[in-house]
Every structure is written in C-alpha cells, then in structure tokens.
DNA sequence: AATCAAGTGGACATTGTGTCCGTTTCTGAC
DNA sequence: GTCAGAAACGGACACAATGTCCACTTGATT
C-alpha cells in the first residue's frame, strides 16, 4: 500500500498523533521566535531547539523557515479571505468595485499591522508569490478590475498589489506613517483607478 | 596621519593603482556572474574566485554580494537620474506632474527590463531602501505629488514606488506581460493619482 | 499483542561567512 | 633609484547554518 492512502476516496491518511503534537509545538515555537527577533535571522536549528524536536523532524515537514512562516500566515489570512467572499459590503460583494478595493486595502493594512513581521519572515521576495494566499488576493483584485471595466486588468493587478508588500508597509511605518494614513493613501489609489460609477 | 587624507580639502586620498585594478576586476566578474545564474545564489567566494582576487580583498570593499550588485546598479541609474533633473520633458521638468510620473514609470520599466536581475541580486528586501538611488526616486515622486497638490504626499510616495520592485516586475514578465503593457498600466495609475490639470 | 509503516532525533558532511594576519605592492620622499 | 611606511592583498581559520541519513521509537491496524 503506497503511503497509506484510502484507495477509494483518494484522501491522504490522517496525521498520526505524535506528528500532530509536534506540528503544533513547532508552529507555536516558531510564532514566538518570529515575533521576538528579526524574523529573517531565525534559523531552522533554533526553531527545532525551541520546539523541543529534532532537526530531522523539522525538515520532514518544512524545507525552510520561510515555509513555516507561510504556514502561520495562511491561518491568519483565511479569515479575511472568507470575509471577501461572503462578508458584508464594502468588503464583501455588493459595493462598487472601487469601494471594495479600498476596503480590501484597509483590511490588508490591518493584517500587515498585526503580522507584517511574519510576512517578512517568509523571506518575502519570490516566496510570497508561491503562497496560496497571494493567488487569492490576485484573483480578487483582478475580479474587481474586470467588474470596473478597467482596460487590461491583467497588467494592473500585480501593480495594485505591490504596495501591500510587507517591506513597503513596514518601511512606511518606520517613516512615521500611521496605519490610517497609509490606508487612506491606498483608498485614494483605489478611487483613482476605479472611479465611482 | 590618519588614513592618508588631504587635511585641507578633506578629500580622501586617491585610490591606489592595484586597488583600482582589483575593483574593476571584481565588478566585471560580478556582473558576469549575476547575469548568468540566479543572482541570489551568487556567493562572495565565487566572485572572489572569478575575479581572481582573495577573499580578504573582496571583503575589504564590499560586506556582501548585495552591496556589489548595488554598486553595479548605481552606475546604471545615475544616467536616468540626470535625465530626470535636467532632461527633456516629459521626463525632465516642464511637463505636468501626471505626465512626468508616467514618463518616470516608463523609464524605470526600461531599467528594470535591462537590469532587473541585478536589483534582485541586491537582496532586494530591505537593502533596496538603503540604496542612495531609492532615496532619489522617492524625492522625485514626492516632488511630483506636491506639484500636483495631492493630499498627504508622504503617504503615497512609497506606495507609488512599490510596483517598481524588481520582484513585482519580473513576476509580471513571467506572467507573460510585455514591458509595454506594464508601462501602460503604470501610466494609468499615474493619471489616476495625478489627473491632468 | 504483534506488526510495520510513519515519525523522530541527532550525528555528519558540506558549504558559505567573516576575520585575522603575515606577505606583497604601491607611492611619495629623498 | 631606492627606501620606508602605509595600504592593499590573499589564503588559512574558526564558526554557523544547512540539509541528509539512518538507527531507533511510537502509534495505528489486524
């Protein structure tokens, strides 16, 4: 039997009890480390030590620190994704695209404020685009552009997502900007691209 | 005498002949390496080997590969900076701010197309903001926003520069977008924020 | 309670970093 | 020209982190 799989349903076997326990330990320890020091300096070894598991155990599941950060992020981001799809306007469906984009921006600012350091820990660069979450944001923004009848939405989507890069956001915060001002600036951007009516 | 300096003018002593020779060798070798493989994989050791200099020599001038990439970039960027300050409109002074911003975007797309891989080699993340060049772009965009009487220009500046991150640009290129389409999208962004008159 | 795949953990080889310091090469003075 | 001191050089070294490997343990299944 290859990889203990239910051959009928095709579902993977459930996670073993000790594995689940360790997964939790790892994530908890990693969250602590990422929050404490500069996330980019966190090492696989440290996480293993902090979680009280062996090196090999850690590598079994996560190839590098970035994917651990990503795993943590996914948890946080899922909630926002839900609200985008089925929440109240203007975040959810119902409001005009420009408004929705601005609301999305505001929500993302909230996320970045809380978890920006984590995104940074995900060795942002290329990694970010690999994340499932990025694909989701991309699809969302693109849909809004299409709804707003903007020309060549494909070319604008990544452009409009760029200011949400953690480096950019944290940079702005360091410059002394408040989340509110940043969100306001993004709202103006949204209205500039997707004018009302 | 501390660091062989002209005490009257305060100018640093001229570079020694062997030093200059090695500097050139290093930059040439590094440019080759960065262009060939993934710039993020290039190592200090490799550069030293390729340049035919010792490890210590390399470290004397550059603390890491990122600053070597930055040194190469600075050279390329200086030309554009010149044209922004004193060139013909719409890039240089004279055109309305929206136009100038769009022209700036177009020029940057050109730069990214040629040297995007290098920017990537500069370990983009935080490093980028440390570069003198970034400060320059920032000042330029900010001035345009002020000229256009946009509210809270400080909050918008980094936001508008974000789409010019090398990761974003290269990502778009990988998606199949042409430089032209990307520049056009950026132009629309510029006009959205700085509408004509 | 027996079986065995899945999971564990730490030792190991490897690779890159950054520093240190004895040696070589320049430059300006005489 | 040659001499002296400063600056630059380069490779050896100590260290840190990576990722792999495999003998051992644990948990689910019968």
What features would you describe in this structure?
- Chains A, B: InterPro entries: Homeodomain-like_sf, HTH-type_TetR-like_transc_reg, HTH_TetR.
- Chains A, B: GO terms for molecular function: DNA-binding transcription factor activity; transcription cis-regulatory region binding.
- Chains A, B: Pfam families: TetR_N.
- Two copies of one chain form a homodimer.
- Chain A folds into two domains: about 15-60, Arc Repressor Mutant, subunit A (Orthogonal Bundle), CATH 1.10.10.60; about 65-195.
- Chain A has about 200 residues and is mostly helical.
- Mean pLDDT of chain A is about 90; it is low at about 1-10.
- Chain A has ten helices and no strands.
- Chain A is elongated and about 60 Å long.
- The termini of chain A are far apart.
- Chain A has helices at about 15-35, 45-50, 55-60, 65-85, 95-120, 125-130, 130-145, 155-160, 165-175, 180-195.
- In chain A, helix 1 crosses helix 4, helix 4 (about 65-85) runs antiparallel to helix 5 and helix 5 (about 95-120) crosses helix 9.
- The interface between A and B is large, with 36 and 36 residues.
